[in-house]
User: Fold this.
Amino acid sequence: MDNQKNREIRLKSRPVGLPTSDNFELVETTVPTPGAGQVLVRNSYISVDPYMRGRMVDRKSYVPPFQIGETLQGHAVGQVVASNSPAAKVGDFVQSMNGWREWYVADGAQVQKFEPAAPIQSYLGALGMPGMTAYAGLLRIGALKDGERVFVSAASGAVGSVVCQIAKAKGCYVVGSVGSDEKAAYLKSLGVDATINYRTAGDLTAAVAAAFPEGIDVYFENVGGAHLEAAINNMRVGGRIPLCGMIDMYNATELPPGPRNLAMAIGLGLTLRGFVVSSHYDMLADFHRDMAKWAKEGKMKWRETVVDGVEHAPEAFIGLFKGDNVGKMVVRVGPDKAV
Amino acid sequence: MDNQKNREIRLKSRPVGLPTSDNFELVETTVPTPGAGQVLVRNSYISVDPYMRGRMVDRKSYVPPFQIGETLQGHAVGQVVASNSPAAKVGDFVQSMNGWREWYVADGAQVQKFEPAAPIQSYLGALGMPGMTAYAGLLRIGALKDGERVFVSAASGAVGSVVCQIAKAKGCYVVGSVGSDEKAAYLKSLGVDATINYRTAGDLTAAVAAAFPEGIDVYFENVGGAHLEAAINNMRVGGRIPLCGMIDMYNATELPPGPRNLAMAIGLGLTLRGFVVSSHYDMLADFHRDMAKWAKEGKMKWRETVVDGVEHAPEAFIGLFKGDNVGKMVVRVGPDKAV
Assistant:
């Protein structure tokens, strides 16, 4: 590997509003040599996720902020190409938080080996953190019961598309909100009962009411803003709203107003509950078991939007906020199989 | 009782914004004569409550709207003065929803007898619906644990003052928000650890932060608006916000914006949960048992703001939104003991 080039993306400046390519810097380095106890990994796919926008702000949060001048972090899948560690051997597939780069060295104990039972990029999406987010958010935070009425925003995304299919597997009536007819068609192909294109639907409260004449039991919140207000206007007594994300707000330069109708939560006995997936990894074995079962039964499908080249990772990330992705957005930064 | 005069308050017009006396009509009638199976009751005290503002709007809600030209309804305590029913005899103390009037007849089965163990107006306040609201809201909806940090808005009111004392009885650190120094002094006399006078505190988020250097576990929400936003800014991970009322919004002619910082609920894993007390009467026996115990131990005190005369009930009601009351606002419409 001597003198092999590595490329990585560093945070150049903190975004104000929607990030631009100027906030990122592509840096070329030399692939490092693994020391004692270390492994050298070549990443195949790296993840870009909406939550990373929050880490670009310098503030106290549940994950520490990214630092200017440092390589960004995020989920990645790759393969061990050299090893000085008994924990992982050459050829092992590994996951890590060392994304936004092509190569890295790490202590053998700090990468997580896995046996791919599906294309490896799946482990950044439906079979990884976003899928687990959908699972914990819908079943534990949303306390979904079989046969309920479920509304999902950002429904064709990495999390939303899994939420929709879990709800369908549980015999629910499911409506997804999306931003294009192409995404609506994709959702229909997954078995979702109805879709709302929020860009063309006009009055969102009325559109949601038309889709839910009997109201909503669980609204899975990925968006915030008008979506949350429209959902609250249509909730049933005892309804639950897992707060997973509010992508509409991540790039706001001024805090936008919250739902004007929040007081309706009193009379309706609604529960709005925020969560981060890291608090719910006790459900991981259940998640893997159920996802394997549903996939086998044809009830769980997924796809990725793949952008090629680590140099395009910033564009892929920015594209998340423009709705460029169907399913999980990933960046291919190396071959699927490096050795 | 022949030709004895009864006075009652009817809804004359639906309020827009803060109600005015013009929205109400005092009507003089003749005390009715009880028919077969009926009782005649003379009310001693009637209740005015913030939630009644919602019933003055013509909309679908968890309680049906008041109708124009009809006598208003609400909790009342009084005494049976004539009876044709085996269910209640002359002299029995009874509760009902036949408030806003001096006298009424009802089927014997439709009034609720009780044995006063405290001044009867207490059964409209700390020992009645507002006390039960505090109990269910803090312990079930708020899932309070001993020793937690509790913030209460409208803290000297009928519900808030009971919330504060339950939390103190559970060994919690308790801070109440009030609108006057007199109310703050009252709360201190109840054992509350600290108070915030929101009218003079300036930046409410900073004032709450100063009172809660380690953050808030449970915020009991009676107010909405700036209070909710300030509380969310200071919540601890896993915090809970029972949504009991949002009195700041009840008279709004346009829906005011919700909390701009609601997205913080995601990272902090907050739960916001609305409730109405009528869904929680399975806790009634526990409530009575605990309140009697706490009162005996000197841990639960209460007082009422008493307005005299049914003709002043509209002013008493309007006064709720101006902060005229300390503790429960009631209207004395007859003698404590009628027979």
About this structure: Chain A has a mean pLDDT of 96. Chain A touches chain B at residues 54, 61-62, 224, 228, 237, 243-246, 249, 255-276, 279 (CB under 8 Å). Chain A has nine helices and 15 strands. Chain A has two domains: 5-123+303-332, 129-296.
